[in-house]
Specification:
about 100 residues, mainly alpha, 3 helices
């Protein structure tokens, strides 16, 4: 089913360079058909408070992580450019002129 959806998107938008596939749900380790993805980005939303790890807990664990990470704040725009640059770079995309 997932492969069919991607094929349909490719047919509708043959010049598209990027397609986001959301896994959804509360299982932070689960992925949505990983064979479809060239790049996986995990988004941990702590807006719901105690439901997920507190930001302070994430900050204390971050130095031990061997993969790139960035803290963002969509209200202020903090970190958004870093994520966009990472996706463009690792995904082999072309950055559009501003």
């Amino acid at each position: 089913m997932n492969l069919a959806a991607i094929e349909e998107m490719n047919a509708k938008f043959p010049d598209a360079e990027l397609c986001f596939i959301e896994s959804g749900g509360d299982n932070l380790a689960a992925t949505f058909s990983p064979e479809l993805a060239d790049l996986t980005v995990y988004v941990i939303d702590v807006a719901e408070g105690e439901k997920y790890l507190a930001r302070e807990d994430l900050v204390s664990r971050a130095p031990r992580v061997k993969r790139p990470f960035v803290f963002t704040n969509l209200k202020s725009g903090e970190g958004v450019d870093s994520i966009a640059d990472f996706i463009i770079d690792r995904g082999g995309l072309t950055k559009a002129a501003a």
